[in-house]
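This is your field. Please look over both lines of this record.
***
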Amino acid sequence: MANVPKIGKAIYKGPSIVKEIVYGIALGIAVGGLWKMHHWNNQRQTKEFYDLLEKGEISVVAEDE
């Protein structure tokens, strides 16, 4: 047993604070960007609706047949 290698133990160092902060910022920016795109799309659709309503091209009153 003269040349038996020692087996090292895996040591848990805990989370890296800097990595956690970077991941959080990146995730926040990505989700925030998607939310803003969703909001801008809703805003555009609402503006288009009111523009068409003002021009008289559409109506919110059902026509009688």
In short: The CA atoms of residues 53 and 59 lie 6 Å apart. The chain has a mean pLDDT of 89. The two ends are 100 Å apart (CA to CA).
